[in-house]
Design brief:
The complex is a heterodimer.
Chain A: H1 2-29, E1 43-47, H2 52-67, E2 73-77, H3 80-92, E3 99-102, H4 106-112, H5 121-124, H6 127-130, H7 134-139, E4 151-155, E5 158-163, H8 164-170, H9 178-190, E6 194-197, H10 208-219, H11 222-229, H12 238-250, H13 263-271, E7 275-281, H14 290-293, E8 296-299, E9 311-313, E10 316-321, H15 328-339, H16 341-350, E11 356-357, H17 368-378, E12 382-384, H18 387-390, H19 396-408, H20 413-428
Parallel strand pairs in A: 1-2, 1-3, 6-7, 9-12
Antiparallel strand pairs in A: 3-10, 4-10, 4-11, 5-7, 5-8
Chain B: H1 2-13, H2 17-44, E1 47-48, E2 56-57, H3 61-67, H4 70-100, H5 108-120, H6 123-134, H7 139-146, H8 163-188, H9 192-200, H10 205-216, H11 218-234, H12 237-242, H13 254-264, H14 268-297
Antiparallel strand pairs in B: 1-2
Helix pairs in contact in B: 2-14, 4-8, 4-11, 4-13, 5-8, 6-8, 8-11, 11-14, 13-14
Classes of the chains: A alpha/beta, B mainly alpha.
Keywords (chain B): Cell membrane, Membrane, Transmembrane, Transmembrane helix, Transport
Transmembrane segments (chain B): 18-39, 80-101, 113-133, 163-185, 268-291
Organism (chain B): Actinacidiphila glaucinigra
Chain lengths: 430, 298
């Protein structure tokens, strides 16, 4: 009997150990289940807009489209982190969802050059899209195939946001250039206020990239910035070093908790007057209390070198479709609808209203803030998207690590940039 | 044994189909859902793959990259440190708590429940509460301020010197209760007559603990060790929820590094190679321990 017991135990031991190990590694290779319907049936719209407000807006948009007759659509809202990690799987599966919320530019291009995106040239000739600006047309064209692969529907802007009442209380004005900006910081600091809020802690370290983006497009220009992010320059180049030398001038004025709190908390600090201003995108207003919205204002990121053409950061949102979609006609019908002025106004009316529509005739929320934001972007000589959108989501973590490290240990910038280049190289070379 | 075996052989070869089904169906399910993906993981660790194009075979390239990867080195050292600190402290504190709370006194149930309660909570929810406490203007800093230790105030999770330890504390807070329950069960199994005999012989408290309690807990120690090693190597949720391995990789564990390389950097080949390393570590520790334990049992 003992022999039997021992062998059973050994079997259990071995199989148990194998099972444990298999479980550990299985989480990486789990064969993905293809979501999406069969051919025929409604067009599936895979959306990462999972915040309650945006989700409701999307539902109303799809309902309005379905009422208009013709093709039918089905909305499928997925948590944004899941959406981001699953997107490659969706696009490469045999039976993919048809349309996806995502970003134009180099992010879309990484899929377009692998022939995963539907050619949308014909709907760009239709009345809904023909009036779009040349900048948008260029942004939505694949550089490898020359075909349009994206339909933009809205964009927003980044700026140095502050509360009007607080600036009045402190007796300070919007700065016109970098030197005035540093003076302003100095004045705020002498009044016991942390001049610049950041919010690159917690799970939003990417907010720090806005500073890198803006300093780089102000110091080296948007063209250099895009080339750098595409791997045509190196992060340990002297040009990049110059960006951090400029940053060093403003760094003493950053909120010391800048890398300890997420941007939502940094927003609260700004609204409560514990920090003076903050470089942030308009999306932060979604969470701001309604009574504070009217008190918010922003100024353009200060000009550092007047010789560099002025570019602004204006991330564009919209849709692309899978090349393997079996309902291409329905897809194009829905995308044309989404590109129209009526659909964009409907969406903006239901969401927080700080975004701008891409259709030239669509009306925005019309608040002074939105009017000012629109003017900022329309007067810019060039428009960049954001660090991850101008490169890839895979490159973003390398920036997060480098920038948070720089803010904590600014003296080590030399080795930080070397490490950044090394980790970026691994992403570019795949 | 041999005699019984030969007389029953004719019956044993004809396995009833129901039994066969009971063995084969779970085996097939296991093979499809567990073994096959695991084998795929081993294959992927030999490739370079971005999840879009077909995987490109690179041999042992991922493993040789690991040797020169400073982040991997940090993560490996942190994982060992985690195993020692998290494992060692939770075993010591769990045993201590069990010894304190083993006697049936009034109100002891309350303390046991209180210590075990964190085990019931989801670790991610726990982490969110701790995150709020660690904030620059959170509970911990406020308390430090209140008792006049304002100079100790810290951005606990954002400072590379404290982040790693700040993450261990919530993990430990939870594990101590679990280990305590295991030891309490073990202590219940110790024959009280042994202590009485020791008292008659004039043994001190320490001698009782050293020569009766500890040897009697040997079998429980085996369970505790396996639990601790497995829990250490799979620790992920609490680190990810609190720091995501940051700031700049200072609280990175092998598990978080594996996740971020695979699903954030989309380097699935290198991520799989890291998973293989974790597997080998876990398998090595557990297998060597189990082999020894069973040899002793026989």
């Amino acid at each position: 009997m003992t022999a039997f017991n021992a062998s059973r135990r050994r079997f259990l031991a071995v199989s148990g150990a194998v099972g444990t190990g298999a479980l550990l590694s299985s989480c990486v290779t789990q064969s993905p289940s293809a979501s999406g319907g069969k051919s025929g049936g409604p067009v599936t719209l895979q959306s990462n807009l999972s915040s309650p407000q945006a989700k409701t807006s999307m539902q109303q948009l799809v309902a309005a489209f379905n009422k208009s007759g013709g093709a039918e659509a089905k909305l499928n809202t997925v948590a944004s982190e899941t959406f981001r990690t699953q997107l490659p799987t969706y696009l490469t599966s045999a039976n993919p969802p048809d349309i996806y919320t995502w970003y134009p530019g180099s992010v879309a291009e990484s899929y377009a050059k692998k022939d995963l995106l539907l050619d949308l040239d014909d709907i760009w000739g239709k009345p809904e899209l023909s009036g779009y600006s040349d900048a948008l047309k260029k942004l939505c064209t694949s550089t490898s195939s020359g075909k349009k692969v994206f339909v933009p529907t809205s964009y927003y802007w980044w700026g140095m946001f502050y509360r009007k009442s607080n600036f009045a209380k402190w007796g300070v004005q919007e700065p016109k250039n970098w030197d005035e900006f540093l003076d302003l910081c100095d004045k705020l600091k002498s009044k016991g206020v942390a001049p610049i809020g950041l919010g690159a802690g917690g799970d939003t370290p990417w907010v720090a990239s806005a500073w890198f983006d803006y300093l780089n497009i102000r110091v080296n220009g948007a063209t250099y910035h895009r080339e750098l992010l595409a791997g045509k320059h190196r992060f340990d180049d002297p040009e990049v070093r110059k960006v951090f030398d400029t940053w060093d001038e403003a760094r003493p004025y950053f909120d010391p908790n800048g890398t300890a709190i997420p941007f939502q908390d940094a927003t609260t600090a700004l609204l409560q007057g514990r920090t003076g201003m903050m470089l942030i995108g308009t999306f932060f207003a979604d969470a701001a209390p309604k009574d504070a919205l009217g008190d918010l204002d922003f100024f353009q990121f200060p000009i550092i070198d007047p010789k560099v053409p002025v570019a602004e950061e204006a991330p564009t949102d919209g849709y692309f479709a899978s090349a393997r979609s079996k309902r291409a006609d329905g897809v194009k019908e829905l995308l044309s609808y989404l590109a129209g002025a009526e659909a964009q106004e409907l969406y903006l009316k239901n969401s927080s209203g700080t975004a701008l529509p891409t259709h030239p005739d669509a009306k925005d929320a019309g608040t002074p803030l939105v009017v000012k934001g629109r003017k900022l972007i329309e007067s810019a000589a060039d428009v960049t998207q954001f660090f991850n959108r101008d490169s890839s989501d895979a490159l973003q973590p390398t920036a997060d690590t480098a920038l948070v490290h720089y803010l904590a240990k600014p003296k080590q910038i030399g080795s930080i940039l070397t490490t950044w280049q090394r980790s970026a190289q691994k992403i570019w070379s795949q | 044994m041999a005699l019984i075996g030969s007389t029953r052989r004719s019956r044993a070869t004809r396995v009833p189909p129901v039994v066969l089904a009971f063995v084969l169906i779970p085996l097939l399910a296991e093979a499809f859902w567990v073994f096959w993906p695991a084998l795929q993981g081993f294959y992927l660790s030999l490739t370079s793959w971005d999840g879009l194009a077909a995987p490109k075979f690179v041999g042992l390239g991922n493993f040789s990259e690991m040797v020169h990867d400073p982040v991997f080195r940090t993560a490996a050292i942190n994982t060992v440190l985690w195993l020692v600190l998290f494992g060692g402290l939770s075993a010591a504190l769990g045993l201590g708590a069990a010894l304190l709370l083993q006697q049936e006194r009034r109100g002891v149930g309350f303390y046991r429940a209180a210590l075990f309660l964190p085990v019931v909570f989801s670790l991610v929810a726990t982490a969110l509460v701790w995150q709020a406490m660690y904030q620059p203007d959170g509970l911990i800093n406020n308390v430090l301020d209140g008792v006049g230790l304002g100079s100790w105030k810290h951005a606990w999770l954002a400072d590379q010197d404290t982040a790693f330890y700040a993450v261990i504390v919530p993990a430990l807070w939870r594990q101590v209760g679990y280990v305590m329950v295991l030891y309490l069960a073990g202590l219940k199994g110790v024959d009280p007559a042994l202590y009485e005999a020791a008292k008659v012989d004039g043994a001190t408290r320490w001698q009782q603990f050293r020569h009766i309690t500890l040897p009697q807990l040997r079998s429980v120690n085996a369970v505790v060790l396996s639990v601790i090693v497995i829990d250490s190597l799979r620790s992920f949720d609490v680190v990810w929820a609190l720091t995501r391995g940051g700031p700049y990789h200072s609280s990175e564990l092998l598990s978080t590094y594996m996740y971020s390389t695979a699903f954030q950097s989309l380097r699935l080949g290198y991520g799989s190679a890291l998973a293989v390393v974790i597997f080998v570590l876990a398998f090595g520790v557990i297998a060597s321990y189990l082999v020894r334990a069973f040899r002793e049992a026989d």
